[in-house]
């Protein structure tokens, strides 16, 4: 996976004195479409909850991939699907993430 | 999704024939395949005739061994990044609009879905007859494909499937 954390995102983390960030990726297999969501926030996450740790320069990135399939519960954490690229950036000073599976 | 049958447990199986390389057909093929695999189904896709072009590498411009095959490949560029709508393509404007809408609504593209499909263990079978007709070789295709199949082998696979779709 190719990870890019831009300078804006690094600045947000530095402002809150965090050396780690977490990204939760969700694929929704619902309503005849496959849609993707990504949420980024400062701080580390629990690897026991399915988060994987990647070292990106001087930062630790924790990420996990969830699959939401219509009609089946509970939500599944997938170790099979891995995004090809993950970009963490900011929009109006808020951390954002975008995953590409292509 | 395991199904209990006496002492045996077997996953439910879905086989899809992808016959077209129209965006509005390939998208549903990929959505059904990935949704099926994410739900626990064992999924096979057989790419035949125009559909075989879906498996072509996006960066591959021309393919084929003779002028007819090469000419056909120029007229009908392969790869999931180059799919067109079967209706309202309008010189590329319609297709670009649908792709832009999909991006706005965070809908995974056919290229992304193809990547997810291989990650989820969906088996992608190129059609042997169409490969010969188009003069396509293994190097023209994306990685992780299964051994090319003929009609008889696909029928055998379909006869063992719980769900069969022709799209």
- Specify the biggest β-sheet of chain B: 4 strands, parallel
The stretches of 5 or more residues of chain A where confidence is low (pLDDT under 50) are none
Mean of residue pLDDT values of chain A: 94
Order of helices and strands of chain A: EHEEEEEEE
Residues in β-strands, percent of chain A: over 45%
Strand order of the largest sheet of chain B: 5-4-3-6
Return residue spans of chain B where pLDDT drops below 50 for at least 5 consecutive residues: none
In which range does the helix fraction of chain B lie?
25-40%
Structural class of chain A: mainly beta
Order of helical and strand elements of chain B: EEEHEHHHEHHE
Q: In angstroms, what is the radius of gyration of chain A? A: 14 Å
Shape of chain B: globular
Strand elements of chain B, count = 6
Largest interchain contact: A-B, 22 and 19 residues
Proportion of β residues of chain B? 15-25%
Question: So how many helices of chain A?
Answer: 1
Helical content of chain A stands at: under 10%
Oligomer designation: heterodimer
Polypeptide structure, described:
The complex is a heterodimer of chains A (102) and B (167). Chain A is mostly beta strands and 102 residues long. Chain A is built from 1 helix and 8 strands, in the order βαβββββββ. Chain A has one helix at 7-15, and strands spanning 2-5, 20-30, 33-42, 52-56, 59-69, 76-78, 85-91, 94-100. In chain A, a hairpin with a 2-residue loop joins β4 (52-56) and β5 (59-69). Chain A is globular and about 40 Å long. The mean pLDDT of chain A is 94. Chain B is of the alpha/beta class and 167 residues long. Chain B has helices spanning 23-38, 67-75, 93-104, 110-119, 128-134, 151-159; strands spanning 2-5, 8-11, 13-18, 42-47, 123-126, 163-166. In chain B, the strands form 2 sheets. In chain B, strands 5-4-3-6 form a 4-stranded parallel beta sheet, with helices on both faces. In chain B, strands 1-2 form a two-stranded antiparallel sheet.
């Amino acid at each position: 996976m190719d990870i890019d954390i831009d300078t804006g995102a690094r600045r947000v983390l530095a402002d809150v004195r965090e050396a780690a960030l977490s990204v939760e990726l969700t694929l929704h297999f619902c309503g005849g479409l496959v849609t993707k969501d990504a949420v980024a926030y400062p701080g580390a996450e629990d690897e026991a909850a399915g988060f994987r740790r990647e070292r990106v320069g001087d930062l630790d990135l924790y990420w996990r991939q969830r699959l939401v399939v219509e009609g089946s519960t509970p939500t599944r954490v997938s170790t099979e699907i891995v995004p090809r690229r993950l970009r963490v950036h900011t929009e109006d000073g808020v951390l954002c993430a975008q995953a590409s599976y292509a | 999704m395991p199904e209990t049958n006496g002492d045996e447990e077997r996953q439910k199986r879905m086989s899809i024939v992808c016959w077209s390389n129209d965006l509005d057909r390939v998208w549903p093929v990929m959505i059904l395949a990935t949704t099926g695999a994410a739900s626990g189904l064992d999924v096979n896709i057989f790419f035949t005739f125009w559909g075989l072009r879906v498996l072509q590498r996006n960066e591959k411009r021309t393919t084929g061994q003779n002028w007819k095959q090469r000419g056909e490949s120029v007229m009908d560029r392969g790869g999931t990044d180059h799919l067109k709508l079967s209706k309202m393509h309008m010189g590329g404007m319609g297709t670009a609009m649908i792709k832009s809408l999909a991006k706005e609504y965070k809908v995974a593209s056919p290229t992304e879905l193809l990547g997810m499909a291989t990650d989820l263990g969906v088996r992608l079978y190129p059609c042997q007859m169409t490969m010969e007709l188009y003069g396509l070789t293994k190097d023209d295709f994306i990685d992780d494909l299964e051994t090319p199949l003929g009609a008889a082998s696909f029928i055998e696979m379909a006869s063992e499937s719980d769900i069969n779709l022709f799209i």
